[in-house]
Amino acid sequence: MAKTLGALPAPVTPESFPAGFHNWVQRKTTRLKSDFPAQWRAQIVPDAAARPAVAVVMHVYYLDLVDEILEALALMPVDFDLIVTNASGIPLDLATDSLPNLSSVRVFDIQNHGRDILPLVSLVNADLLNPYDLILKVHTKRSHWREDHPDLAGSGEAWRGDFLTALLGSTQNIQQIIGAFATDPTLGVLTADGNVLGQEFWGGDHAIVSDLLRRVQLPPVHEQLRFASGSMYWARGFVLQGLRALDLSPEDFEAEHGQVDGTCAHAVERIIGILTDEAGYDTREMSAATLETIDTDAWHRFDASWVKFPRARVLPFYLPQFHRFPENDSWWGKGFTEWSNVAAGVPVYKGHNQPLLPADLGFYDLTQDSVREQQRELASESGIEGFMYYYYWFAGKKLMNLPIEALAASQSETPFCIMWANENFTRRWDGGEKNILIGQDYEHVPATQFIHDVMPLLTDARYIRIDGKPVLAVYRITQIPNYAEVLEYWKQAALDAGLEGLHLVTVDVGATMQGVEGTPADFGFDASLGFAPHNMKWSSQDRGGLEMDPRFEGNIMNYGVMAEHAENDLLDPVPTWKYPGVMVNFDNTARRQWMPDIWYGSNPYTFRRWLDASLSAVADRDFDRRVVFINAWNEWAESAVLEPSQRYGHTYLLAVRDALYR
Question: Is the pTM value of this prediction over 0.70?
Answer without folding.
Answer: yes
